[in-house]
């Protein structure tokens, strides 16, 4: 988008703050999944995050959570993460994302124990790799294709469940 015609994220963030109840807190985080490792795009550390499974599901204990006061600040946080995402030139795009990323917005209000969350997901596209491509690009493509295939399997199972074919 542009200033005159903002894209879906600026419009969504603006609407979220417009509708936010009095006293609510908003926080966000931003992760990248690159070559089957998870990174905090808002952290100075370039070390991969570890995942843990607990009573509340899977989480990354060292993931940074960033409070924001308005939609402009949220867009600044998103932009900061976008600047360090893994990108490379491909045959189809000069700045193709070579990873999947998830920008999470958490909203809580006083007395609420479980946050309401939005997850904005950017999936890397798959691409055929030629025989002359560097081994790093081949490994990237394999990791991307493997994760997209796993996602397709998950979606298929969710559709079966939604259609009552599976419990």
Low-confidence stretches: none
Could you tell me the mean pLDDT?
82
Q: What proportion strand?
A: 25-35%
Please identify the structural class as seen in this structure.
alpha+beta
Element string (H = helix, E = strand): HEEEEEHEEEEH
Shape: globular
| Tally of strands | 9
Largest sheet: 5 strands, antiparallel
What proportion of the residues is helical, as a percent range?
25-40%
Keywords:
9 strands, alpha+beta, 31% helix, 3 helices, single chain, 167 residues
Structure description:
By secondary structure, this protein is α+β, with helices and mostly antiparallel strands. The chain contains three helices and nine strands. Strands 1, 2, 5, 8 and 9 form a five-stranded antiparallel beta sheet that branches. Strands 3-4 form a two-stranded antiparallel ribbon. The radius of gyration is 18 Å and the shape is globular. The mean pLDDT is 82.
Quickly describe the structure.
This protein is α+β, with helices and mostly antiparallel strands.
Q: What topology does this entry show?
A:
Blueprint: H1 8-19, E1 25-34, E2 37-40, E3 52-54, E4 57-59, E5 66-68, H2 71-82, E6 87-88, E7 96-97, E8 100-108, E9 116-122, H3 135-162
Antiparallel strand pairs: 1-2, 1-5, 1-8, 3-4, 6-7, 8-9
